[in-house]
Amino acid sequence: MATQQQLLRKFKNISRVLTRCANMKITFSGNTAWHDDGAINLPLGDFSDDDFVTMSIGYCDHELGHENYTKGEFYERAFKESSFLKGLLNSLDDAHQEARLMDDFKGCKNSLRKLVVLCKDKGIFVKPSIEHSEALILKAWVLYGARLSNDQPLDEYYRIADALLQQKFGNDFYQAIHKIFNPTVMRSINNTEKCYDTAKQIYDLFMAWVDEQESDDDSDDADGSEDSDDTQSDSNDADGSEDSDDTQSDSNDADGSEDSDDTQSDSDDADGSEDSDDTQSDSNDADGSEDSDDTQSDSNDADGSEDSDDTQSNSDDADGSEDSDDTQSDSNDADGSEDSDDSTTNDTTPSDSNEQSKGASDSSMQPVGKKSEILDSLDDDSFDFHAQLREQIAEMAKDYNESFIEPLKAIGRNPVSIDEYGFCNVGDTHRLVSSLKNPLKRIFHDENYCKKSLDKKGATISSSRLSTVVTGNKRIFERESIGRSPNAAISLLVDKSGSMCNSDMRMANSVSYAMSLALDGIKGVKNMVGYYPSYEVDEDGRYINNPNLEIVKTFDKKPKSADFNISGSGGTPTAAAVMTATSYLVNRSEPRKLLFVITDGEPDNIEELRIAIQEANAVGVKVFGIGICHQVHGFEDADFEVIQTEHDLVEALTKGLKHAFK
Fold first, then answer.
1. Where are the beta strands (DSSP E) in 253-365?
2. Which end of the chain has less neighbouring CB within 10 Å, N or C?
3. Domain limits at 472?
4. What sections of the protein cross the membrane (predicted)?
């Protein structure tokens, strides 16, 4: 079993998690974290690990913000257009909903700030770098810029992203995007719709910039420019001009003109002659010689040689002949005219012979060059906060092999539990309270609380403090002060499973109400009462199959008899109920902590109950079992008494409490 300190951290942390989201169902299962409407699941991890708990609590708070303030229809609208737009919306909405959450729940500010610090340490939030693509730089700039308004420690990361944004995109884009999104704009965003509008403006500006990169790729210099790589043609010049790489044909220039890079290009003649448009073109040489039609030939014109019409070739005229427009060819004129680089064809016939033979799609429809690289990078999830946070929580939980008993979620008074068969007899209960109160007072006051302290004078010297005299410490004398106040926190758990018949349920209600009322009358004693299992219902009145611990009386509230009119149903998850009650007790400041379990039958898991009681004892919570007419297994490490009637309770409590305070 874990050490006492580990168990203390575990129960305190479980209590922190369970009390984060009053209107959310918290479950512990599997090895992944997820959020659905009204529910958050955390993996079975080491709750004595403060980092794991910090990340889990931060995740719960973050998802609670989405539950309260996010409108999902705008995410659907963004995703239909682009996953990248959805990512921009998510970054803005995360900051927006966290800001509203911190305004409504002040305690969340500290937990979310700790989450950001831990995310930096774990590499979820990373420094942007020059190696990142333009798309990632933009995502980082929006992510960190949005969170700065929430006073989160991401200033350095934002400054780096801002500098890279200007370097990668240029001044025009940099100035334009700062008008769309800046701290003033972020402070004005108060709903998901405004997040969407801002994200859409950023996305539209970015895509316009991407289109400009395509235009840059398609333009070449008029003369002396470097040849480009074309998918379908390699042109070899007659006199040493740079070659273009083409997969299917070679065209040779007569006099050193620059080659053109075109997937499906138009041929320009030397002196303005008209071009002919033909799927399989005939080339006419300079002096009107007849062309030969060859299926797979390359023709090289000098000045009047017969040109070949090739399905996959490019013909180049020497001077003034009519140029042929071939669906898959690039023709280069004779005297250094500008080469054309175009991803579309001006031919009247849109298909080419290569497409007919191979069935390939039109390559001209695919983005090329820098635009293609940018578009390919849009799906990079390096700055996807939610995905990486869930992955990190799962990573921290995957090596946890110890058994974990899932605690019950604590809920308030559940109207579904009220039933006429559960009504307790108020008259009998008050008589029972009178018989309980005085014995309980004597027990608590007999067990005085002793507090040790150090003073400048006294009768007993502390050996551990004696050596500090040379440093000027004069408080070396031990003193003991006896506290007459009981100073105790007590939790009562009541089994309301289906095995509790009407008479047993009425007895359990009477006993728990009498105990709570009697304890509440003792100064310095605080008590809480919870029934398990309690099931909620959905909008259609159907039971939700997740057991809860129904708190009918909190530590700071007076007991009311109407709150104890509970009927029985469901199983007996006693171990889970003990886990929840223990997590509440360990966070109490009272030095004495006791847990009473009132039950009538076997728990769902006897071994888990044994473990839960052992862990409770290890962290200073004394467990005492009260059996309604039956002995119950699993309480071997706790005091256990069986009562047949309400009046047997006084003797059982007296015996149990005396033993608990030994």
1. 276-277, 292-293, 308-309, 324-325
2. C
3. 449-483
4. none
